[in-house]
Please model this.
Amino acid sequence: MLWRDMKAWQIYGANTDVGKTIVSTILCKALAKRAPTNGLLYLKPVSTGPDGEADDKHITKYAPDVLSKCLKQYSQPLSPHLAARLDEPNYEVNRRVGKLGTADWTLLNRVKDTLTRHHKEGGRYALLETAGGVLSPGPSGTVQADLYRPLRLPVLLIGDAKLGGIGTTISAFESLRLRGYDVQSVLLFDMPKWGNAKYLSDYFSHHSITTLSIPVPPERDVDAMKDQDQLAAYYEKVSSGGVLTSIVDMLHQNHFSRISKLTSMPSHAESVIWHPFRQYGLPQNVIAIDSAYNDHFEAYNQETDFVTNQPEKPISGLQPLKSTTPEAPLLTPFFDASASWWTQGLGHGNPNLSLTASHAAGRYGHVMFANAVHEPAIDLCYNLLSTIQNPRLARVFFTDNGSTGMEVAVKMALRATAKRYNWDDHNGEIGILGLKGSYHGDTIGVMNCSEPSPFNAKVDWYKPWGFWFSPPEVKLVKGQWQVQFPADGTMPRETGSTTLFPSLNAIFNFEAREDDAVFYTDYIVRSLTHLTHHQKRKFGALILEPLIMGAGGMIFVDPLFQRTLIKTIRDNPQIINPAYQSAAISRANSDPTNWSGLPIVADEVFTGLYRLGRPSSSSFWNAASSSGPEADISPDISCHAKLLTGGLLPLALTIASDSIFNTFISDSKADALLHGHSYTAHPIGCAVANRSLDEMRTLSESGITGASQPLQDSMGSWDGYRASWTPADTSISSQVHDIFSFWDPHFLATLSNHQRVASCISIGTVLALTLESVTSGYNSTAAVSLQARLMSDLDKHGRGVHSRILGDVIYFMTSLETSMEEVKNLQGTILKALDAELEAQRS
Amino acid sequence: MLWRDMKAWQIYGANTDVGKTIVSTILCKALAKRAPTNGLLYLKPVSTGPDGEADDKHITKYAPDVLSKCLKQYSQPLSPHLAARLDEPNYEVNRRVGKLGTADWTLLNRVKDTLTRHHKEGGRYALLETAGGVLSPGPSGTVQADLYRPLRLPVLLIGDAKLGGIGTTISAFESLRLRGYDVQSVLLFDMPKWGNAKYLSDYFSHHSITTLSIPVPPERDVDAMKDQDQLAAYYEKVSSGGVLTSIVDMLHQNHFSRISKLTSMPSHAESVIWHPFRQYGLPQNVIAIDSAYNDHFEAYNQETDFVTNQPEKPISGLQPLKSTTPEAPLLTPFFDASASWWTQGLGHGNPNLSLTASHAAGRYGHVMFANAVHEPAIDLCYNLLSTIQNPRLARVFFTDNGSTGMEVAVKMALRATAKRYNWDDHNGEIGILGLKGSYHGDTIGVMNCSEPSPFNAKVDWYKPWGFWFSPPEVKLVKGQWQVQFPADGTMPRETGSTTLFPSLNAIFNFEAREDDAVFYTDYIVRSLTHLTHHQKRKFGALILEPLIMGAGGMIFVDPLFQRTLIKTIRDNPQIINPAYQSAAISRANSDPTNWSGLPIVADEVFTGLYRLGRPSSSSFWNAASSSGPEADISPDISCHAKLLTGGLLPLALTIASDSIFNTFISDSKADALLHGHSYTAHPIGCAVANRSLDEMRTLSESGITGASQPLQDSMGSWDGYRASWTPADTSISSQVHDIFSFWDPHFLATLSNHQRVASCISIGTVLALTLESVTSGYNSTAAVSLQARLMSDLDKHGRGVHSRILGDVIYFMTSLETSMEEVKNLQGTILKALDAELEAQRS
Model:
């Protein structure tokens, strides 16, 4: 809702009865002087009370050259949430605090349409007046500042000039701020007795906000005609006065400043920022994100902006994109289809997380964590352990991101192995075992845990320390789920290179895949024996990304292969350390949570915490028949980040078993795990993570088997997704619990049969397509072209899709709150774009 | 303000005139039934209006068995900030939004004293009633929720039952939350017409807060006697009713839960947390931090708690500590003397930072930064570049903490060197140059940048890649500033091992130290030539922590030595790369910001951003005579974290010159800097950092030469510190600008002459003491004992000091806002503890 040639503001009141409509009338009259005929719209989306007393009628009466409109007038002078219920008993009640319901979106879309139409018809100004105070409920019960947040119009806050009004005005301001609004100005009546205007003017100057006093309106006169004349004279005088002129000038100025700042951001970024993962020698389109809400960015896309940019050839270097007209809105909503690098879970601009963050900030700021503890950290530990339900894990170590979390995991695992096997040395002899395509972060220590790739080729201190198996991969090809064996021939598979499955679910039915398990075990034993016995190599850990290797190209690994790797290493410690023959025997008699063979590290940074539909992605390794997590298969160390804070801010946890923890205990400080970042366990991160885990758990719970009082919008919100993935195969006993995706299986089948698509994968919120392409892999431009098209070909609501690519793979990811309707819409957009690509290719 | 046997609450109103005093009276009467005689105190700290109408008189009338007290009664029925000015024209006006002024502290201490005395006299309950609404101003103008924040009493929020009251009640709640308060319950009158109680009950249940309805009081009767009787009957009835019983039960329950949760935190931590840098085989006292404000933690110290712990021998394993009595407060304020691992700058629980964080959270959440940009990131880049004023630095790269920031710096520098010198290889041949005692973080890549030490001895993949000079050190010994040359004999110093200086300032007067510079140059040239020409070693970067190497033991390096190292390497590239003779010549003709010899990396993570009194700690390398930063001496890459966000949450920036940046430009993606954490440039961190830089700049500015309208409390707040460090030496021309400390020079002299102190250092906010000890270094217990004493020997205000040690070094650090009075108090505490240590040693 931002145009170059139309200015729109939202009027909020610090409380009810602070004179919002009077100030709106003054503003309307002042703006009307500068507007063309029919150029100014006064919009009251919701009004309560008798029609004759309605605010829009007041405007019509005293500012007749203003277009005045009310979208919904309720008859009773009550709060809209009560008034709506009286007039429309079935009006939807929204019970999701901080999140919009269906009725809210309907109302909001009417507001959007009204503003858009006004603009199209030559409108130059719009004033949107709310009802009551900032957090007064709207018709559905959603508080207004939440209800109108997706518009994020610049706000004029009408302050309270009476006794007590200082406090209510500042509180109202704070409620707006924590929902991401920008307040342009505070306006209030000039009542010197209470001194509010003077005080607030000083106070808000610390927030660079101008406070302005408006003369008090005349006392009400019993003579209606006289009263009307007095008021008209008051309006005429005040709206022509110097204060109003200066307000209007300031509002104009702010509008142009905002646009200028927004549209110059990409070029400012070019001169001062060093973007991650960006090759500055190649053309690149940088978008300027103005704000974000739920699944969407509101962003300025320089590549499609007509005014600042009239490129013959757009920056992306691909086919010319459609330029917008100068009248087009400057901000485009883009679906955040990379979930902002896989972090987003509970929606951008979530006011519950914002309030949680600010409470921790206000209570603690950051406080020391060495030999100290605080409530959010303790609560988070217990919450996470009960969420992931791994029978081995017991101790929680805090760091700041997945990379540092994995550095800690590596330090833990290597020390445990080196100590048990007496391999103490610093010659880099101890490597790790992993899979080809793995990636564990950008710090050099964990880069060394992956095989050579373009990511580490130019990192001077990179040194591959380990051995990596080529994994068998799960794919959907031409409607057929299958496991493909590595193309590099490392795995001798006599029966051919692919095994077919009737469903994705069937791939997880390990009991039915006994033959595959035997084959994998044999292959793993032989490979490892060769490495350790013949090549005399030493290993310190098995590190796996459960199910999907993200950065490596969204490689969906056969879970049975990962499961078998773990089992084989645990059952055969003598293969890892030939000098340690007794371990296999001693293990049976000892603690079943003790690590065996090698510490098993699960890097759940991307795949964990509901990204794939389950709290822990290691749980996909469990057999279908096991009622709960299998201790035998559970990792000894697991690492969690990204979704941990619901998508708000950095925090990582590395969790270890007691057997790992005990390795570091001695009477020497030097044996401790000497690792700890300054902001270790920062209370804001812990508090937000704690709240996020609660909200994510609620979302994931089935409504059918859920709590006794399900809230209609939040409980069971994934049941639709689950239902669509229930296999048609009626032999229920062969099904594995909770294998599903947010993406529809019929859509996947269509996709996998598309001529532009070589194969695809999907589970949980993730969808990835490998595109057909003449040049495959990293040099392919097939994905680049599709990615650019999704940004520029907007849907009927004017929305685009912001996606990320990895070579010839393009992927899409929802948050945990994305609705079925939204997913369906996205699916349509993706298919349409693929068709257009095909068309372009043909012509 | 937390006792086992006394419960205290604070009553806040959602607005003025919501019935706070009526509800308080009801609560008083209900609580009085359970309290012993004189066991319940009603405290109204500030009241306005005629004495007869005062709230405390109302309580006395209707709840006569309650002790009722008002600390300050102003005569006019106005907001206290106006009423105070009328009665006491000189009452201090506080202009620092969000921060307390002197008058606020005076009032607050009176409240504390009153509550403490009440408790001592057998009090079991206290209700503290505020005036007006949550953010109504107190007498100084400070809003009440800020004014009383240091008490952080559990809050009972009296909601507004009238039309509009839903919004004002929720906003009031949010204002309390973002200041760190815990709201126990929301109470409001039962006025079904507006439906507020019903709505709020549902709303607050999402925050696990109970909302309770109170019957509406009787209408006022014109007959005063009748009115009084009606009201008394109302109070009697309501206070005995079921709702009040359940409120009181809940409040009791919450009190015990809070204490139980608080006191069990240390043992919960023992079972589930893996603390950083902690050896679990050694006894350790873990404190539970309940909250923090400005420089202090409010913490539960299990080691001095009488009830849960009656140890014959305390956990620390040292001399028995004083146990407190069961009546002692459970929370002790501890000065956060490590500034929470060197992060703290603008005070714990700073409401301005809290509001800034929540606004960014509400506007964006986190949004993608790859090929995208947002306002807080752009603003921060420009703000930081103008703050540090380094003529070379141009490009800002974002990561999450100092360690990852330095990983990026290392990647940048090594690539630049390897590319220019054609040293492309992965054999780990390219090392770094640095100083012994350096430390750059806990990730393995940057651990490899430091020489072997206890920190990396047990990190299996640690490999020291470089050469480290033993640095000459600055120390204050027996009142004498000096430079001590390395004890290891690496630096041949004919004239003896120590050079004396009349002041700290004189050490920075490089022009007067020409001989030292010549000596250093000669030594460096010979050492490097030996390494590169004879040993054929390759180096990729010079990495320095300007001035103080923190983790290495607060080693204060002679700045002239660091300056000379940089100059020597820049002037003699042929020493670094014998095959690159032409560089010295070509350099003069090329871009003066191009790197020469080696990229110079400044690790300012600890020392930068005002920690040592200056925006950039690299600026200490500049010559006294240079009017601004010297390009010749400025680093090519610098890294900033810790104080960057004012002490609130993790964020790091690595800034590079264009000559470094250009290294990564090509037409191949694989040549880019392929580094980027998920939450790169998270908007909350950027927004908070931006605000923090502004606040820190204001604090650092001199009031004398400052802006035209200095605010008394913020501008020039360091002038007192600066003045005390102006050298007595009158030859002004020899003085270097802005060499000062928050610690008094006379105190330092006393300290350095103390029998327990071997030497000390201080600059900016940092003070470090090396203690005299039989066993020196890492195994010394001298510092442990002093550290424990500072925790247990409380000062006359009942406050302790929480400090951190590094072997036989104990250090203390203030925030950037710590007052001279607070520093003076700390200085006294430190000297007293040292004396007590001496006494204990003698006996």
